[in-house]
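Whether sequence alone determines local backbone shape is best considered at the level of individual chains. In the encoding step, the backbone of a single protein was reduced to a row of integers, each denoting a local shape. For completeness, the protein is quoted in full, as a sequence line and a line of structure tokens.
***
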Amino acid sequence: LQDSDAACEALRALRKVDYSALSVAHKLRLLRTLADGLLSLETVHTLLTDNFDRQRDLLKTRAQADAATRKEINALSAQPLSDKTHVHHTSSGTDEKLAEAAPPPWSEYVSDDEADAKAQLTEREHFDATRATRAQATERLLCAISARDEAELEEAVEHAAKEGHAGKLDDGRPWLTDELRTAHKLLHDMQSQKLRDKQMAQLKRRDTKAFDAYRLSVGRHPVREEPIGIDSRGRKYWAFVHDPLRLWVQAPEGAESWTWAFYDTAASVQAVLDSLDGRLEGEAAFKKTLRELLPTLTKEMAAEEVTNTEEGWMGEGHEYIDRRVLRFFDGAGSSTGKITRWLPADEETGDPALFHVVHDADGDQEDLEQEEATQAIADYDDQQERGGGVEAAAALEQPKYANMYEKKASRVVVGNLGLAGARSELLELEDSITNRLRAAGSRWDSDELDRDTWLLSCRHSESLVELAQLLVGLEGNVRVLQSAPDVHERKPWRTEGHPFIGKPSRRFFHAYGASDGLIVGWLPAEGVDPPLWHMVHGDDADEEDLDEQEATFALHNFAENRAEPTTAELEYAATFAAAAAEEADEEAAGLDDDGDERLAPTDRLVPRGGSATKSSAPRAGSSRRLWSSKECRERWLSTLQQPSSAAALSLAIAAFRQHCAAFGALPADIKAGKVRRDEMQFQLSSWVHAKAFADTGKGKGKKKK
């Protein structure tokens, strides 16, 4: 007790009065000192060490379980509601795949059950009657699709199947109309969503049960609590195991107005995390710790802030309501806020009136007695009269950002994001090219291709996969109009005829280290072009092209198990980098090796066996082919087989839009006004590489020649 001034002060106070009369601060000081003495015992120290290790293991296990649960939830959320083949639920209770056959002509809409009825009608009467009932069923289907009511949709589907929207062809193949097919798909998606919601609820219940077990296990192994961090104002934050519904805050040393406070909602704890500055040395570690503990801390907290809901608090009836206040805190500076509610005085109990204040900077809240509220209002008014000081600084909000580089109509808003944004973008693109397709003789909006059904499916789509397939269908109707065959980006790699093929090799990359792989192909020298070898890396399947010297270095690196490049390889790499920089400067100037104007990358793409000429190069807005190369289109189609996100789908739409503009399928001034030939060729060239549509993450910086 003699080792600390605070402990000595508490001990002197205890000598003067009974323990019950001591202040809370003195009681806590004495308790802490006694606890320190107890913890110095070897037996207690060993027990706490074991408990600490056990808690750390429990926390690690809990973190792994949380990660597994989040992975399951993410996988369930990302799972598409619809696949490429939907199921038609027949009236007999069996399931069959939806037919791909087109409906027969109107005159053939007769089933065996209608044979007797047809005998009593003329052919024209029967045709009119069938068409009328089918039209009514169609209207009912469309209304049910718009309403998105599962029961109504089921009834409409069953009714439509009986009224000429489904049947079998003469060869036995079943068929469905496009309206009934769309309704079946929507019904399937709604039922799948209901099942997904049920599975999601089961996952959350299981996670809650596991969390309760974790908290119980942690409580059985108590340790000495330590603050999880300290902010820049000196406030210590505590997460007590036996009080999981609060994040406690200890006032900084020397503070007199308050000692302890707490946050008890997920929103307020998240606000604390957001307020921490990771650039400050003291708050960086705290921010990292709080971020790791956030899922556990907020597990059972209320989601939103609910304050002063106790009986008696009022939002009106006093002149102080909505008044601005200025408060001063020892060690923490000043803070402005506003009085939002008040609690009238209770004459029976003698409790004074209270005024609830919400602070501007961090959302902290406190209750003031009337004298404190009066002083806080006076301090605020005095500050304003003397020039605004604190309030002026608090009022300096950052201006709302606006992307002035883009025209207002082209700026991204919330509605442009996610699945809804991709859907709107696809619909807008289709509307832009329809007139050009019609003028070029396309059958896109003819009765045969039924553009209305495409639009209906697009507007009601709730799946990235379905939107991707609709985009592929639109691309197919544009591509059939091209007047030249697809071209290849390069000759195919040879997989035999050279001793390097199939040999393991090793390359070194700055800030990454060594990477092993195989040489899988080569191209012989042709004209002034030197031979090249194609290497595929085994750790991440990245690819790069090597010249003969680089391939030789790579083979020897692996054969001799080198851990770093040789001096000769480093010197060669430096020479190559200097040559590449000089070539880049020439390309930036738009000149080739002879000082002539250099053709854009897409201008140099030629069919197999052909030759490149400047006169045959595609011109902006009038290319003879839709895609820059056959490989570019194949990569684009591969991305759309299973788009990983709405961003990936939007990227594919953007690529298709640019190629449509170069092909002449879009008006010249669409979106960004007239585009010069060189600008359009630069845009198209950005899609001509192996990973144009891939999310590659951080690579090693391999060069492509």
